[in-house]
Amino acid sequence: MFYNFTQDEIEQFHRNVAKNVARIRKEKGLSQLELSLEIGYKSCSLVGGAESGYNNIHFNLEHLYKISKVLQVEISDFFQNIEI
Q1: How far is it, in rounded angstroms, from Cα 20 to Cα 41?
Q2: pLDDT tens digit sequence for 52-72
Q3: φ, ψ at 63 (rounded to 5°)
Q4: Which among 18, 19, 32, 53 would be 20 to 30 A from 70, CA to CA?
């Protein structure tokens, strides 16, 4: 049996993860640029783009792993409040 994933469903998933990253980042007092630099980027284009959903940019697992280490949270925190 194959599940029929919709594009809207996948986009909502990415938006929810990005919202959680943004919320935790702000709680920890880091700017998008500071977080970007900490995970090895020279500008805030990845973090800013993923948080805003710009141009279909989103975080991959490596990004989330690095962000969880920088923010000192469990990677699972980025998946809170996501309905499946």
Answers
A1: 20
A2: 988 889 999 999 999 999 999
A3: -60, -50
A4: 53
